[in-house]
Amino acid sequence: MSCMSSNMLRYTFLFQRITGVSLVFTYHNYEINQSGILFNDYVLTTGGLVLPYVLSKKVPDVKDFSVKISLEKRNRVISKTGYIAYVCNSDDLNNSMKQNDFGLDSIIIESFSQFVIIEINNTAKGNFSKIEMTLNPNELNRGKDVLTVSTPFGNQMFLNCYSRGIVSKIVDKGMFITDSRLSPACEGGPIYIINGSIKLVGLVLTQLMVSNEYTGFNLCCNFYILYEAYCRHRGMHMISPLLSIKKEEHPIHRVSDSVLPVKTPSLKGSCISLDGNGLLVTCSHVINYGNNTPVEVTFGGESYNAKILCCSSKDDILDLAFLQINPDTPLPSCTFYDKNPIKGEAVYVVGYKYFWDNSLQLVSKGTVLKHEEQGPIYTSCITHSGNSGGGMFEKDGKLMAIVCGILFEENISTSHHCHNVGIPIKVMKKPIDAYIQTGDISHLESLCKTKDLYLSTWHLFTRSKL
């Protein structure tokens, strides 16, 4: 048997242990679709979609919902009915959601802090396979590959769809964010790590939205939080693992500190530290093209006023600005990538996403969609307002490009957040190195005011800023 066939059989066996389900909660005219996980002889899911109906008095009691359960067993779809046996609450998750502003109101926070346990009707005990889970939060770190199982839109044609992504951010010990690009009805879907074995590590809470727009990022809880609430509700003893966050080992974590938030009185974005002495690069549109705008950069919890060394105008080819701050401690910096990107290779975008007054540094994984010599880099990473000036990094953490925009269709006013553009660091490397060595600002100005005829084709991005 070939090595490829052996690996396929191995992964087929592993995927058979995935136990996602589709759920439909019904009460009179109300019908709610979401996902869940088969846990021994019960189904576990978040209360985030059903409990608001109870808290707002539209449904008298959560146990008044009837539940239809669809699951896969030996490549067959099995339909079952069930009932909500009980609801368990996590005070830790409730406090965590209150402390981190994701734009959720009090009823939604209370609902997503509770978990619904559904008992399946007419099911013999032990009829379904057990699952392997990890209760150790240390299993997760930023950049870790994860697999989410859900049923998009509650449509049975999409029962138990797989979506790959990465851990974009560890919010705290109980919550994390992924870039798995999930759809409505994903709530309650299980999240796995697959690395030689398959382990359940979390549950989807909700998709992160801004102004009714899906961002592609998803708020999730560590399975330990759910299991702890379950054990407390059932009066079961649970041996608690150490709840310390493991030092993140992914190369992206090592360079993420070089990406900093930058803001003006009216605009917010990201910037990148180019050396340890406070030299930064961002997009000129982030600082309003330097039009007498005060610029502030945050590092290590401290805010610094930034001096604009030089910046491009709206009419210039490259959307670049160079800043200088005088930090109290040396800034982390990144290594430049001196090769041409290869179409299809993995790439990571690191930048800031602004949820109301809460700024989060998020990581998204994608691929290089296209790149030509001396031309811009297109990727499929998730990018949003606030990512401009952030970094595109290759898999080992070397800086590949500066994020400058996304593709925008003017005729239908639609932004394509998974089609974005970056200025390759190769275009900037020599002038930046020359400035660092000599202090001669003309080297940076040559980038901001370049008249390179080949680069003039980049004018097509002037209406696709982030």
Structure overview:
- It is an enzyme of class 3 (hydrolase).
- Pfam families: Trypsin_2.
- The chain is built from eight helices and 24 strands.
- Helix 7 (425-438) runs antiparallel to helix 8 (442-448).
- It is an alpha+beta fold and 466 residues long.
- The radius of gyration is 24 Å and the shape is elongated.
- Strands 1-2-3-6-5-4 form a six-stranded antiparallel beta barrel.
- The termini are far apart.
Summarize the structure.
The chain has 466 residues and is an alpha+beta fold.
Largest sheet: 6 strands, antiparallel, barrel
Instruction: Tell me how many strands there are.
Output: 24
* Rg from Cα: 24 Å
Q: How much strand content do the residues show?
A: 35-45%
Structural class label: alpha+beta
User: Helix count?
Assistant: 8
Span of the ends, CA to CA: 50 Å
Helix % is: 10-25%
EC number: 3.4.21.-
Subcellular location: Peroxisome
InterPro entries: Peptidase_S1_PA, Peptidase_S1_PA_chymotrypsin, TYSND1/DEG15
GO cellular component, one term: peroxisome
